[in-house]
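User: Assemble these into one structure.

Assistant: Restating your components, then the assembled model:
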Amino acid sequence: MTTKKHDGSRLDRDETTTLEAVHPQLPQMAEDVFEGKVSRRAFLRTATLLGLSAGAAYAMAGKLTGEPFAPAARAQDGTPVKGGVLRVSMNIKEISDPATVDWSEKGNELRHVIEPLVRITSDNVAVPHLAESWTASEDLRTWTFKLRQGVKWSNGDDFGADDVVANFKRWMDPAVGSSNYGRFSALRTSNDDGSPMLENGVVKIDDHTVEFNLRVPFLALPESMGDYPALIAHRSFQGGNWVEDPIGTGPFELVELTVGSRARYRRKESGWWGGEVHLDGIDYIDHGDDPAAPLAALASGQVDILYRLNVEQVPAARAIPSLVLYQADTAQTGVARMKVTEAPFDDVRVRQAIQSCIDHERLLAIAYQGLGVAGEDHHVAPVHPEYAALPKPTQDYDRARALLAEAGYADGLEIQIDCVAQPTWEPNTCQALVEMLRPAGIDLAVNIMPGGTYWDRWMTTPFGFTSWTHRPLGTQVLSLAYRSGVPWNESSYSNPDFDALLDKAEATLDVTERQTIMEELELMLQGDAVIIQPYWRSIATASNQKVQGYAHHPAEEHHFEQVWLAQS
Amino acid sequence: MLIFLAKRLAFMALTMLAVSILLFLLLEVNGDAVAVKVLGPYTTEEQRALWLVANGYDRPLFVRYFEWLGNIATGDFGQSIRFRVPVSEVLWPRLVNTAILGGVTFAVMIPLALVLGVLAGMREGSVLDRSISVGSIVTTSIPEFASAVLLTFVLVFWLAWLPGTSSMNDGFAWRELVLPVTVLVLYGFGYIARMTRASMAEVMQTPYIRTAVLKGLPYRQVILRHALRNALIAPFTVIMLQINWLLSGVIVVEFFFAYKGFGALLLEASLNQDIYLIQACAMVAVFVAVATQTIADIGYTYLNPRIRFA
């Protein structure tokens, strides 16, 4: 829940106010932590002693020092207690085949029992999980994954290469209908639909080594293995209903699952390869689709933690002193993108003029309650490992007017933007844009339409507002949306230099090196003014004070092995 | 009497048949749309075509309709798309839950409304009458979604007296029933109370009551022996209608408090386009509506001696 840790800025206004309310000395102390004069531990002690909730104190300390929740520090400030069942409010959806799941909630229903080879942590880093380590060849086309030894399935079998190969075989069979078929298209003979997996695509070297041979270089292979449809089921699972015989390597076993109602998990008696697990079990409770219900359940102690808090609910949750709020910075965003082949947006001066009118911080505050990080109009997020910090874009109406006059619109410009009606942050952002463009003489009309209608024309409209989801790597997003001629290139942006540089970035495994290339890519996109990117959305949730050791995940994944419940 | 009953039952059956035809035409006439809903939006044309043939959608409409009707008559509603189990497995427990919610609501609401209504109607224009009338108008005019939010704010977030949701996750809990029942009672009782009041006030002005009072009968006896029976005829019909309104009220209340009942199920089914579940829920709702209407007719005739069974 560290916010803006990459550019090193401090607490926002809300947090400072919170500190001030607890004790007038605290904001100064926070300042000192930021400057390194006071230790993080001293701050935590003082702040919690003065009455700041532990969760908030940890969060702020993490933000000030730029370090995420450090497990060591956590253990020092509170010894985990064993026992207790964590009650979570979340929709319970049907999960008969782990390979075809398509919602984050479904991933969470599976994740406590079956596990991925690679895990994406709350800080958006890919770390080994069932895989112990991996290496890639120079050309990024041959990857060798070492699997963890001594991992047992709940039925007593050893986990090994056979399990991994069996899962990949199933995923890469188009008849199964797994989204992994597209995710690992580098493992197929061609990119066409229906093509089979390469003969030597996935090879068992020995019981604990698997080699992947790709058709094309694919940097994001480990990240893709961390996605929820890539959880590894037992090699005997070949379709049917997984829930009826849920064999797993994870720390918990599934006891009961009733769609639309609840799911219960109990800690596995035989232990977990990853070490000690504190919770006795997990109970998921489905409270339906009304976002008010989970919050009411949390406030009255019927559950311990929520799956999600909508941005509109954050102020309400903040007003309840007994709750702890969690926030995760994500690479989820929305972009107001201009089609570079359509008038008047085919003139780069017009696009730059529009860009010059934007105050990103204000957009974030108006349309998204300030919960996020201001955007920089280049679609690489601060949470992406290869993100390179650029000077902040600033609002400059003189420049905007000059550019417009130069482009022949000295008397003003009338344009229209298309956007969806739901979720409300999207039309809200467009409405805020209207006000920001007006002083430069740009008259923007907002055309709000139902989701289905918008998605029919998102590729063709001259000016549209499109939401994009979180992806672990910046290169993934750029390749999807800004490469010449790719299917999702909604702006029709086409720049050979950009493409070539992106190729280079995608073939660079070293992150620092990739960062240098990324800086150039970011500047290129920014300068060509293809998109207005208002902000990166933070997602939020809340728990009661009992829940310890939880960090909110940018893709809303639940990892509960280290979570424990404080005795109240 | 028997002829009357038979007529009513036949009318009931006809109504349900008509509704079933409408329902079938509305949801199933377009087979392709059904296939999309069952198989999901990412399936190919081919898969859908295969599914349609495998499930007999290539046969004439009326054949499919009668088959469907036969299945429904024997309690086979098909497979729920969202829950992946037979519809009846989801439907009956949910109906029982709503019956509990509705039963408790009625057990609180009816006595409350009748007593208040009779008290108000006994002395028209008194302070008691005015305050009961105003009170019931106020509560009836606040919709359930507003009172649910208000009560939750006060009793859950502020005073922390009651649990905020009613999923009954750890078995049946009376405490979890308090909020939904209160919301439903607040909305529903005022209407019955006002009907009772009007009916009672009317009866109190009839000559036979005046005669009874003038004869010197104790006031208490006049009310209990002579006024009440006649005064309750009109409210009885309203109470039966109230069952129908309760069915729509529970949708709001169950959704808000995450109560696992029929109302929430109906809403979930429509939001998720679970067509077989929608069909089943709609048939149940129609059955309840028609059945309560029949009971109301029979009861009214029985209570009012001026109307004879014919």
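The first helix of chain A runs from residue 13 to 22.
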